[in-house]
Write a structure and sequence with these properties.
0% helix; 42% strand; mainly beta
């Protein structure tokens, strides 16, 4: 559910970004080119989710698709 996430973060080397999702979507500003691990911190009873290997090109939009939070 869209309201099931409280925070989304992305890590690539020493570059760490975080944001609060709104309406089930999220966006990071100023992400540098690289491979990121993206995590969603869920609200209980839902479980956190992590995506590894997300390729980002600086200045471009990267769509990670739908992330389903499991119970």
């Amino acid at each position: 559910p869209a309201e099931g996430a409280k925070e989304v973060w992305a890590i690539s080397g020493s570059d760490t970004l975080n944001t609060t999702p709104s309406g089930g979507s999220f966006e990071f500003s100023n992400a540098k080119t690289g491979t990121y691990k993206v995590g969603v911190d869920a609200i209980e009873p839902l479980q956190d989710a992590v995506l590894d290997g997300v390729q980002v090109a600086e200045g471009n939009v990267t769509d990670v698709g739908e992330i389903t939070l499991q119970k």
